[in-house]
Amino acid sequence: MHDEPPRTPTRGLAAAGATAGLVLLTRPQRVLDAVAPTFPRERAWLVRALGARMLVQHAVVLVRPGPGVVTSGAALDALHAASMLPFLGSDRYGRAARISAAVALGSAVAGRVLAGSERR
């Protein structure tokens, strides 16, 4: 019987994403104060929601790191990055949107590369 490889790079990326999600979920204001101080405090729930989504998405990849799951996660990250486009120039939301879009886009690209390398 042939065992599957451990998919260490995929799990490493997923662990980083889950950790980031947990931080956003549990400490949204601390993150906002550090990276996007103009983001409205009353909108910190958006950061928590993003953290919850990231935590669930990357936890699923940790449990099932197959190419299909990783590709689906990469697509979700790409959609998130695209959803930030209308806010990139905003005085209030721009910095947070640029950071969020960059992280999501980086995760999407890394996920696609890892999924593609695992299909070979």
Description:
The chain has 120 residues and is mostly helical. It has one domain. Helices cover 75% and strands 0% of the residues. The chain has five helices and no strands.
Helix/strand layout:
Elements: H1 8-26, H2 28-35, H3 44-63, H4 67-83, H5 94-119
Q: Keyphrases for this structure?
A:
120 residues, mainly alpha, 5 helices, 0% strand, globular
H/E order of the elements? Answer: HHHHH
User: Radius of gyration, rounded?
Assistant: 15 Å
Termini separation (Å)? 19 Å
Number of helices: 5
Q: Which residues sit in consecutive blocks of at least 5 with pLDDT less than 50?
A: none
Strand percentage: under 5%
Mean pLDDT, as a whole number?
A: 92
Number of strands: 0
Characterize the main sheet: none
Estimate percent helicity: over 70%
Task: Specify the overall morphology.
Answer: globular
Class inferred from helices and paired strands? mainly alpha
**Count of structural domains:** 1
Summarize it.
The protein has 120 residues and is an all-alpha fold. The protein is built from five helices and no strands. Helix 1 (8-26) packs antiparallel against helix 5 (94-119).
